[in-house]
């Protein structure tokens, strides 16, 4: 069987239903086989977006997304997509074409060392030099992407491997990969610490989303009477409406959540790597808190915060084990429970939601109300992302998809396209900034051409808002290169691509726009002109303590 | 003052003998900002496998990088090796000719200090 056919055949056997890609010279043999493939190919307009689309697809379904790019510039364009997936542990299989093995290393036309370039930003990567290795590589790639901690796997395939004949029997062999071991040897200690905690809290990260353990986390929290706080990546794993859920922590987190993070005596951290955006200055973090760290990746335990109890295993399994260990024990119902209620109630803010120009918080409130209960939201990066993290309410079965680790502007829109392909029955909405959207706006073509009716809710403030905010707060308003002086008319831009669009300048118009967008059967842009001076506050300045918080409109009165 | 021995940690790995493995392993050290003092790589008793033995001067960091190395697909085993199993090699040259020696890390660093060879290379291995 020809190499290219092997690729297609094995993608089919993996149950792949869609791939996102852009062809090129060295990929011609593969694209020729794709003509007869059983799965769908979606042609994007930039390889970065090919990666983000596959990533959005993977996050929406919790199964690997597949993307394809050509050699050289195709592969280098794909880098941002792959790196973004890597930082957020998203399972991709990224395939790139490569120049023929005979000229590889001779600076051939469109040659780049994709193998070397992808190495530090993938969970694992392959360069297939021997055609016989192609089936093994393809099969192992999917296993590696979805075993243990998920992550992107890259396969670089020279054109002559795609045209070689490969013995068919290689396709049906089993190619096992090492399975990471669980280590629950400290389980008993963990149970004892949790049982005797006076002020326990549960911090939940993206790991719990990947292993779908929201229900178990809630059950455990109810046993312990512990509040649940989430990282940006963990947002949505538990519904915000639950009385024990206090929302997102960190630099722009809810003050109630941050208060708990810094005032609990015992912290059960599930599937999180204690990023600096959560801990602040790490040497000052949780110095008097007992931490139990649950992670599927043994190398995360002790990486950022040291010297605590570690339980190595997936969030679902370990949470269930903790439930089993704690269920029969007598947990003290302390003052803490009352306190949590006070904290949740104290976490409010004060702004005029009907004021003009439109406040971004108003937009998010309306999105919370009028997007369906099972909507998928994605975000770009910047203030738009943090407003969403802070204010958007995760009710029902909503999903929140964002580039947390790498913070990639331009992620949200293509990711929303991928998510919509994964779950066409759901409303999918990218909440964007005008800077971010301009990095990827060409993908309106892809959305319209392929009938992928996503919603883009553009928080149009005319600035690279987040950077501007930092210049305002920390650089004496010496604004440099943050004003987007000459942006297009976004409504016309979207329409030029065949999408539908509306401009919103009054708070009262937002609701109707959202309703229309949800019903639309083409991609729909809502261009909301928002107050350019509105910041995302509260904020704990980088490297600072909770007591250094800049509150803004936040009225949280229980000061840490 | 700490002796040379106290400052050296030796990491031994069993890896798949495939192209790119060294780059991947060294990448972990670069990213974690760990300075690698010596490297020995070679074929070993298992077919299609190789051993990599590295020494670094920061035992705490060495311990931390082990878990990261274990996460690599081609790394089958990774462990720190205790001092009793360290073995140091020295190849040196001066105007009179070449000499080679084996011994403990400490012994050989003493030799180097005393004889001040014009050129030398020294490395550490372990089993
Ligand atoms: C690809 C990329 N380039 C640069 C940055 C740095 N950066 C972070 S936020 C931001 C501004 C984002 O502006 P916009 O998309 O308009 O969103 P806003 O903050 O105004 O909501 C920039 C430039 C980044 N995160 N990603």
What does this structure look like?
The complex is a heterodimer of chains A (560) and B (127). By secondary structure, chain A is an alpha/beta fold. Chain A has 3 domains: 3-172, Rossmann fold; 187-346, Rossmann fold, CATH 3.40.50.1220; 360-529, Rossmann fold, CATH 3.40.50.970. Chain A has 22 helices and 18 strands. Chain A has helices at residues 3-13, 28-34, 47-61, 73-87, 114-118, 134-145, 159-163, 187-195, 206-210, 214-224, 255-263, 276-279, 315-327, 335-346, 360-370, 383-391, 412-422, 434-440, 444-449, 465-474, 490-496, 510-519, and strands at residues 18-21, 40-43, 65-69, 92-98, 124-127, 153-158, 200-204, 228-230, 245-248, 266-270, 290-295, 309-312, 376-379, 399-401, 428-433, 455-460, 500-504, 524-529. In chain A, the strands form 3 sheets. In chain A, strands 2-1-3-4-6-5 form a 6-stranded parallel beta sheet, with helices on both faces. In chain A, strands 9-8-7-10-11-12 form a 6-stranded parallel beta sheet, sandwiched between helices. A 6-stranded parallel beta sheet of chain A has the order 14-13-15-16-18-17, with helices on both faces. By secondary structure, chain B is α+β, with helices and mostly antiparallel strands. Chain B folds into 2 domains: 5-82, Alpha-Beta Plaits; 85-126. Helices cover 30% and strands 43% of the residues of chain B. Chain B contains 4 helices and 7 strands. In chain B, the strands form 2 sheets. Chain B has a 4-stranded antiparallel beta sheet with strand order 2-3-1-4. The longest helix of chain B is centred in the middle third of the chain and has 12 residues, at 59-70. The mean pLDDT of chain B is 91. The A-B interface holds A 115-116, 119-120, 124, 127, 129, 144, 149, 177-178, 180, 297-299, 301-303 and B 19-20, 23-24, 27, 31, 64, 67-68, 70-73, 76. The complex binds thiamine diphosphate.
Count, helices of chain B: 4
What's the CATH architecture of the largest domain in chain B?
2-Layer Sandwich
Q: Report the portion of residues of chain B in β strands.
A: 35-45%
Reading the helices and strands of chain B in chain order gives: HEHEEHEEEHE
Give a count of the beta strands of chain B, DSSP E runs of length 2 or more.
7
Helix content of chain B: 25-40%
Low-pLDDT regions of chain A: none
Give the largest interface pair and sizes: A-B, 18 and 14 residues
Portion of residues in beta strands of chain A equals 15-25%
Class from secondary-structure proportions of chain A: alpha/beta
What gap, in angstroms, lies between the N and C termini of chain B? Answer: 28 Å
The tally of domains of chain B stands at 2
Specify the CATH class of the largest domain in chain A.
Answer: Alpha Beta
Which overall shape of chain A is indicated by the principal axes computed on the Cα atoms? Answer: globular
Structural class of chain B: alpha+beta
According to CATH, the fold-level topology of the largest domain in chain A is Rossmann fold
- Rounded to an integer in angstroms, the radius of gyration calculated over CA atoms of chain B is 15 Å
Shape of chain B: globular
- Main sheet strand line-up of chain B: 2-3-1-4
Distance between the termini of chain A: 66 Å
Name of the CATH homologous superfamily of the largest domain in chain A: Thiamin diphosphate (ThDP)-binding fold, Pyr/PP domains
